[in-house]
Design a protein that fits this description.
binds iron/sulfur cluster, 13 helices, eight-stranded parallel β-sheet, alpha/beta, five-stranded mixed β-sheet, elongated, 17 strands
Length: about 375
């Protein structure tokens, strides 16, 4: 079956510097990368590597692991060497963990120098070690963590407070000549995320990591993330994304891919064009769409499948898709590349779609 056609309209990407997180380029026109964070205890190497394998299979490009303890820091070399994708160490406060992460070969470190400076000012040494290792640093300012002086100045975690805080954090590295930086300014409110990133994009040329932090359970979180990412990526702002859903990291990665594919920034994998149903419905469309989605989960080629509940819009949408079914009278009319090839009983619809997807192009005989 043919690949879905490319999106007709694409945003021009904002020009940024480019850095490399291991093998993955970020910014400077590179494809927008997808990242997530493991939820395992990092020191549990097997569990962490298992989860990294799962998110990699789902299409994750870069994975971040939290390093809150010395035990976690000690396990980084094993994780880095076995991970199929670049690993970023996420560190707060402890400079010794930053050095351990760089020594372990982590592709990048997420650390805010403001936190380091407060307790043990080794920002210059970190800049030097990161330069030698070629490891970029990600500055991350969330709604809960702007610099207290800027929070007091702005009265709340406003877009201005987030951006000023992030640029101040960058300046602590810049004064040591280190500029291999990317920045995230995150908030749970998508409109604040949009305003903050627009402002940040106007004030620097560092690559930007987009995220709606603490976006909520999967359904709400995916929508909030999509709202913010669509507005920003539609303007060309954003170089790497994370969907911070309260859900399995695999779901975060899948949501991020759907968002990028919807914006024409990633090739589509599986797209189900299914109708919402109405009073004309002649089949349980919700169940049928879910069964088709499950049957094609992991299908290796891009595919658009129309699953339609009656003959009003069914044939039209089915003709536009790679595969389609238009239901009515207990039957499903099966379309392949715009042609009706079979009509089958309703209970045979899903299996027939799978058979047709696996049939070599051109060998289905029309009805
Ligand atoms: Fe209603 Fe038919 Fe449209 Fe589905 S395809 S929403 S059943 S008119």
């Amino acid at each position: 079956l043919p690949a879905a056609p490319p999106a007709q309209v694409r945003a021009r990407r904002r020009r940024t510097r480019q850095l490399r997180v291991g093998t993955v380029p970020v910014g400077g026109g590179a494809p927008v990368s997808v990242q997530t964070m493991t939820t395992t205890n990092t020191a549990d190497v097997d569990a962490t590597l298992r989860q990294i394998a799962e998110v990699t299979a789902a299409g994750c490009d870069i994975v971040r692991v939290a390093v809150p303890s010395a035990d976690d820091a000690r396990t980084l070399p094993k994780i880095v060497v076995k991970s199929p994708i670049p690993v970023i160490a996420d560190i707060h406060f402890q400079p010794r963990h930053v050095f351990a992460a760089i020594d372990a070969g982590c592709a990048a470190v997420r650390v805010n120098p403001g936190n380091i400076k407060k307790f043990d000012d080794r920002v210059g040494e970190i800049a030097e070690a990161a330069t030698v290792a070629g490891a970029p640093i990600r500055i991350g300012v969330n709604a809960g963590s702007p610099d207290p002086r800027l929070l007091a100045k702005h009265g709340a975690a406003t877009p201005e407070a987030l951006v000023e805080s992030a640029l101040w954090e960058c300046s602590l590295f810049e004064e040591h000549g280190f500029t291999d930086l990317k920045i995230a300014v995150k908030h749970h409110d998508p409109m604040t995320v949009i305003a903050a990133n627009r402002l940040l994009a106007s004030r620097c040329d560092y690559p930007l990591h987009l995220g709606v932090t603490e976006a909520g359970p999967a359904f709400q979180g995916a929508i909030k993330s999509a709202v913010a990412f669509a507005a920003l990526l539609g303007e060309g702002i954003g170089d790497t994304i994370r969907g911070s859903l309260s859900a399995d990291p695999v779901e975060q990665v899948k949501a991020a891919h759907h968002i990028l594919a919807s914006l024409g920034l990633r090739p589509r994998k599986l797209e189900i064009v299914s109708c919402p149903g109405c009073g004309r419905l002649q089949v349980d469309i919700h169940q049928l769409a879910a069964r088709v989605e499950a049957a094609f989960d992991g299908f290796p080629h891009p595919l658009r499948i129309a699953v339609m509940g009656c003959v009003v819009n069914g044939p039209g949408e089915s003709r536009e898709a790679d595969l389609g079914v238009s239901c009515g009278n207990g039957k499903g009319q099966i379309f392949v590349r715009g042609r009706v090839v079979r009509t089958v009983a309703e209970h045979r619809v899903v299996d027939t779609l799978v058979e047709e997807a696996l049939t070599p192009a051109g060998s289905s005989a029309p009805d």
